[in-house]
Design a protein that fits this description.
The protein is α/β, with parallel strands linked by helices. Helix content is 22%, strand content 30%. The two termini are 25 Å apart.
């Protein structure tokens, strides 16, 4: 079987119970850009995501995130003991940006303008033996992100 040499992730899909809250937080926290919005869907999409009402694509640098809501959402976070994507990782340009993003998360949380599914605060910034800096935090839906600085590019 041939290798998928040019494979890359195109986007992450984030289901939320409150699309406006989620969109506002992502735009502000990640300094994201809204790219487009849909409110009409293919039969395939409706069969996979019953009750889907709106989908909005945002861009965080080269990462695209699809935020969407569905009628009848039970507003419960995923079962952490079950199979879930544990986190998504987004790289940043410098170690200093991690401190800025950590402080920004705290400011947005303390502002009271956003409803958060979890009260967990961001972790401290850790540096591993290879000099990789990482910060872990939860979005408004309780989904975990790692923000990381990798010196000397990929590893």
């Amino acid at each position: 079987m041939p290798q998928l040499a040019s494979t890359r992730i195109h986007h992450l899909g984030v289901q939320t119970a409150d699309l406006d809250n989620c969109l506002s937080w992502y735009l502000e926290f990640f300094d994201a850009e809204k790219k487009w919005e849909l409110d009409k869907f293919s039969d395939l999409t409706v069969s996979r995501l019953p009750g889907i009402r709106r989908l909005i694509e945002i861009a965080v640098g080269d990462v695209r995130i699809h935020l969407f809501d569905r009628a009848g959402h039970n507003e419960k976070p995923a079962d952490p003991e079950g199979f879930v994507f544990q986190h998504a990782c987004i790289t940043v340009a410098s170690p200093a940006e991690l401190a800025v993003r950590r402080q920004k998360w705290i400011e947005l949380y303390e502002s009271g303008r956003f409803a958060f599914a979890r009260d967990d605060q961001p972790t401290d910034i850790v540096v591993d033996d290879d000099g990789v800096h990482s910060l872990y935090l939860f979005d408004v839906n309780g989904l975990e992100y790692e923000l990381t600085y990798i010196p000397d590019g990929d590893r």
